[in-house]
Specification:
Blueprint: H1 19-39, H2 52-55, H3 58-80
Helix pairs in contact: 1-3
Length: about 90
């Protein structure tokens, strides 16, 4: 019974993610950055002044949470998607 040796380095090294997974991961991280940037701000230098229109704007209350949820979903898809395995040519021994 022949056993197959697994090498941890060299051209046959396998990564946990494929190219598609890394692309999804980068897109998800960019969406998260856009969501957190659009969520930030609205502060005032004067503690006695309250600007409710800026604090409760549509950008902060609707747009930013939707973009953040999309970012988290894309990152989850990137992690859970199984990378495609390439067909290896048979080697002659």
């Amino acid at each position: 019974m022949a056993t197959k040796e697994v090498k941890s380095s060299g051209p046959n090294m396998h990564f946990a993610f494929g190219k598609k997974n890394y692309t999804y991961l980068i897109v998800g991280i960019v969406l998260l950055i856009i969501g957190f940037i659009s969520l930030a701000g609205g502060g005032s230098t004067d503690p006695n002044q309250f600007n409710g229109d800026e604090l409760f704007s549509t950008r902060r209350m609707v747009f930013a949470p939707i973009v953040l949820m999309l970012g988290y979903i894309v990152v989850a898809i990137a992690i859970l998607t199984k990378p495609q395995e390439k067909e290896e040519a048979p080697t002659e021994e």
